[in-house]
Amino acid sequence: MIERAALLGGGVIGGGWAARLLLAGVDVALYDPSPDAGRVVEQMLGNARRALRRLTLAPLPAEGTLTLAGDPEAAVAAVQFVQESAPEREGLKRELLARASRAAPPEAIFASSTSGLLPSRLAADMVHPERFTVGHPFNPVYLLPLVEVCGGERTTPETVARAAEIYASLGMRPLVLRREVDAFIADRLMEALWREALWLVADDIATVEEIDDAIRFGAGLRWSFMGTFLTYRIAGGEKGMRHFIAQFGPALQLPWTKLTDVPELTEELLDKLVAQSDAQAGGATTRSLERLRDDCLIAVMQGLRANDYAAGASVATWERLLHARAVAPAARDDEAPLRLHRVDVPPEWIDYNGHVHESRYLQAFGDTTDALLRHLGFALDGGDVYMTVETHLGHLGQARAGERLHVTTQVLGHDEKRVHVFHSLYRTDDDALLATAEQMLLHVAAGSGRAAPAAPAVLARVARIAAAHAALPRPERAGRSVALRH
Amino acid sequence: MIERAALLGGGVIGGGWAARLLLAGVDVALYDPSPDAGRVVEQMLGNARRALRRLTLAPLPAEGTLTLAGDPEAAVAAVQFVQESAPEREGLKRELLARASRAAPPEAIFASSTSGLLPSRLAADMVHPERFTVGHPFNPVYLLPLVEVCGGERTTPETVARAAEIYASLGMRPLVLRREVDAFIADRLMEALWREALWLVADDIATVEEIDDAIRFGAGLRWSFMGTFLTYRIAGGEKGMRHFIAQFGPALQLPWTKLTDVPELTEELLDKLVAQSDAQAGGATTRSLERLRDDCLIAVMQGLRANDYAAGASVATWERLLHARAVAPAARDDEAPLRLHRVDVPPEWIDYNGHVHESRYLQAFGDTTDALLRHLGFALDGGDVYMTVETHLGHLGQARAGERLHVTTQVLGHDEKRVHVFHSLYRTDDDALLATAEQMLLHVAAGSGRAAPAAPAVLARVARIAAAHAALPRPERAGRSVALRH
Q: Which of A96, A138, A155, B411 is within CB 3.0–4.6 Å of A144 for a Cys-Cys bond?
């Protein structure tokens, strides 16, 4: 994990890096000659905060600090890592990297966000070019895991390994290239598709919207988690890739594509692209499209996380990192009541009639009980545990999407096998009590699955908490049963 | 909606069509010369049943009946729709379609699953070629929504419209092509990517796994819901597509790709592809990869459904169709107790310690309450409704992933604003009682959000149900409060 990074360039990509780094707790010094840079980064950061809060409930670290630097030299002083995201012009990047390399600590790792320029050429004028590599990210940088790492002729293997390690610590998925090559891997693939798509529009075979539909309702869904080769292997059946190529290889020779040429970007083609793209957007602003994109990315990544596969596995790995790095909960045994859990209402919690589904309140209470168990020292890894045997829920108000909620916990009683707790869920902004849950937790031994006394250390901890809570007034709604009262 | 369809060809694509049609309640007659065809379709159907049960909780219709036909003529007799999915050889398809067209009812719609052959040529020898169109699906056909509809020279607009309508009734997303063109839209895009990917392997720049990673951790995630043009529009910022092209158009002229040629599929390249693909699969069988693929597709589509966007909107539309078509619930007011809800435990319900998360039991009970409200005549569209104000949950056993559960409901009491219900959740296989929920429902007026008496028709219905339930024994756990009992 790094503590301080410099960013050279703060546009869509540089701003995305700023957001990813700051939200990972890294302090960032940004150099960008545009007077607008600070505003752009702030806006990106707003998007990123919203996105990460929705992507995960794992504890995010305290945000790093953003400083705007007046020149590249000021930005890179005393940092461990420099990421350059200047416009895609070789000369410009080369000079910027050379200047910065003279001012940075000699051990600072340098990376460029270039989509396709060769690292050996970019590093040509640097001091210590051996610590330079390409680190090519994808938009939005604060959400997409991929970063292509490609060293040049003089890059040391240690530099590549260190850059990959830094990116992984930010929750990314580094893909280290075997060879230095123009456009690396991803952009060659993306450009092949893009070139063909432009021909389809140029030849009036399809509009931009129809082309997008042809992707997103079909192959694009598969590409999101398996790519192309594994998908085709499956299509080959048990005989795998050899069978697939035998079946579909010949079609490659059919004159289906127009890949032999690039469509000329005439004014006419450009007008057509623009008009069709405007029609497709239907008046939506870029900002609303960005949110839609982020929401869909989050949904796809969360879906894949449930399968612990592809980008979902990246999210899961990153969450484990976050949990491992999280500072111990501030709650102490004498805090009365305990305050162990908070959550921002995700839009997925809202049901068909615009309300938070009743089961989501119990999800928040269940997560609070989990936090209590972690607080009591349980690893929640399949060993002994307390299980809920009974819950009484009261609904007093309604939470809305995006609202910040927190839960307090009062221990009402305990014996060697049981803990009797009362959770209260509040809207944090106005401290309105929205729901309560009274629960009986039963200690269950691993393996047998039978009720059994908890370990002495756990019981001592429970007793300390209960003693601290004994002075609290008994919650008004404790001990209720469901009944028609008149 | 159609009732009877014929399939000509039962491989990966034909079998996928069989599964989609049968699970939509359509009877299918299948002709395939392979003696293996029945087995292949049964296996595909097994995958599809599992996948659709996980994709949606909406009520699926009773499955259609599969018949194996000895020849094409027998298959197409008395059907409304014929889908041909024979191997990709023009002569073979042309002859098969001609034969079948002579035996089928003249008004039956014909479609071909071809990935790229021209409909005018395929229909050349047909009787009534005007009712023929291409309907090009994507694997797995029972899950992916896209189907490209492309008529030939003689196809009538009515045929294209009718085919699109049939596909939509099966939950698919028809994309009607403007012009007859080789390879349509999707395969031209897929092949451009595939061709470039083969070059990357041939030139030893990357392995098949690295190429898949370059897609699935980056652009593939975006392609799954926005395709390429809308994504790039966003990258262009507020100035949209024109700005994007100005920025990135020039890169199209860089010598980044090798699209001018097709790599020769030498034995050497083939061996390399096969070896890398085997390494990537790491010994996983095609069957397990198919399940992984389906699970990820389901997760991605469910995630997008929460945003009602792209393939998620297709799922939502299809679910509305299913709900609209579902037969009225069998439950009658004198059924005691009512049996209104069943659910198969989806894997998403399982938490870190292998148990169903406690909140999921309440989700099942909440869904049961929704079913009760629909039974009482509520549209659940934002008008008056009963809301849960209090719930008492008891946990008596554990459900596991994939188990079939059902819930019974007993009305314990009511007044003009309230209904007091007791739900019991059982594992259907052995009728084990796993959980109970006692709930107080309060009638709330639309708009004001205040408690108010329910409409007389609703109250009469509630009273009839309560009268039928009065003779039932009171559930043992009714009226409980949470307490340490010794």
A: A138
